[in-house]
Automatic annotation (TrEMBL):
It comes from Thermasporomyces composti. Keywords: Metal-binding, Oxidoreductase, Zinc. Residues 186-311 form the Alcohol dehydrogenase-like C-terminal domain. One of its GO terms (molecular function) is zinc ion binding. This is 2-desacetyl-2-hydroxyethyl bacteriochlorophyllide A dehydrogenase. Belongs to the zinc-containing alcohol dehydrogenase family. Residues 36-148 form the Alcohol dehydrogenase-like N-terminal domain. InterPro entries: ADH-like_C, ADH-like_N, ADH_Zn_CS, GroES-like_sf, NAD(P)-bd_dom_sf.
Length: 355
């Protein structure tokens, strides 16, 4: 019903970034997404390029498929709503919780929809309208309204920041903790900011790249180069003791070994990074020294809503997290530069409405 007036003044094709196989991605016209019952049509303001998108682009993770449009870290404005949707005015700023779950299994009933065996994720599932496009149609239940008092583009940071929020929560982060985050990329930054929000005042990030350490300094988070002599002692010095919680935002054998060896015996390590599908660690660092190793993946809907509520308060440090902005036309070269390691930017946002 709402559609009729919209169709008259809008073209029937939209520009989207289409993945065609390893290292091949192009801007193409795709059919205009139509909001079905319970869905909302959003005009995308900006979408972040995630590390998982880059690994999909290079073919490394096998979780992206030729012909699909990626993009799950996004913010947009409501254009129209499909049947059965009320209360979302055109123009409303909103982000999208990208996890679509069945709502009825044990995991969903427990509020752990990201563990739903039937979950589908926007930007990962090729059948779902996704965010590297001018327009996307998404379930209204996944749309989270944002206020005009925050910078609109910061809405694209909510998804990666929620990953850090969940990881810190999985580690039981609290005010008495001394927290080491291993890796200062977007997820490491999210972990450090989340640990602070969860009450930890003593947080340090281990990061070898000088540009990323400069970013961390700008957002008020101390960092240490893991290649420095006496790394373990330096971390303990900065934190006032050995870490009681380590969040591994890299996920390689060396990062996890580092997290386990620097963290105090009996304490907790959370594995959230996914750099390598298999890791090799010291079994005794877990058994004899009784460290707890906890996995962390994605976020609950509540983690996402809590993170959106925080971003809605326009924390000033978030502006520093965005290091590059590109149009859809420039997105293919941005993907290639990030994959080749030539773009030092931590987070790159794509603006599909820009030419
Ligand atoms: Zn992501
Ligand atoms: Zn379910």
């Amino acid at each position: 019903m709402v559609r009729a007036s919209v169709d008259l003044d809008r073209r029937t094709l939209v520009r989207a970034l289409v993945f065609h196989g390893p290292w091949r991605i192009a801007v193409e016209d795709r059919p205009d997404p139509v909001p079905g019952p319970g869905e909302v049509l959003l005009r995308v303001v900006s979408t972040g390029i995630c590390g998982s998108d880059i690994h999909g682009f290079t073919g490394e993770n096998g979780r992206r498929f030729p012909g699909q449009v990626m993009g799950h870290e996004t913010v947009g404005r409501v254009v129209a709503t499909g049947p059965e949707v009320t209360g979302l005015e055109p123009g409303t700023l909103a982000t999208v919780h990208p996890v679509l779950a069945c709502g009825s299994c044990d995991a969903c009933q427990a509020g752990l929809d990201y563990r739903c065996p039937r979950r589908r994720i926007i930007g990962v599932d090729p059948a779902l309208s996704s965010a590297f496009a001018e327009l996307m149609a998404v379930p209204a239940a996944n749309v989270v309204e944002l206020p005009e008092t925050m910078p609109a583009e910061h809405g694209a940071l909510i998804e990666p920041l929620a990953v850090g929020h969940h990881a810190a929560a999985r580690g039981g982060c609290g005010p008495t903790d001394r927290v080491l985050v291993v890796g200062g990329g977007p997820i490491g930054q999210a972990c450090a900011l989340a640990a602070r929000r969860q009450g930890a005042e003593r947080v340090v990030v281990s990061e070898p790249h000088a540009g990323r350490r400069a970013l961390l300094a700008d957002i008020g988070v101390p960092s240490v180069d893991p290649n420095d002599d006496g790394f373990t002692d330096v971390v303990a010095e900065v934190l006032g003791g050995a870490p009681t919680l380590a969040l591994d935002a890299v996920g390689s054998s060396s990062s996890l070994r580092s997290a386990l060896s620097v963290c105090a015996p009996g304490e907790r390590v959370v594995l959230v990074g996914m750099h390598e599908p298999k890791v090799s660690i010291s079994a005794y660092a877990v058994s004899i020294e009784e460290r707890t190793l906890t996995g962390s993946y994605c976020y609950t809907k509540q983690d996402f809503l809590d993170t959106a509520a925080w971003v809605a308060t326009a924390p000033p440090e978030l502006a520093r997290l965005i290091e590059d902005r590109v149009s859809l036309a420039r997105a293919p070269e941005a993907f290639a530069a990030l994959a080749r390691g030539e773009n030092p930017a931590s987070k790159v946002l794509v603006f599909p409405g820009d030419s």
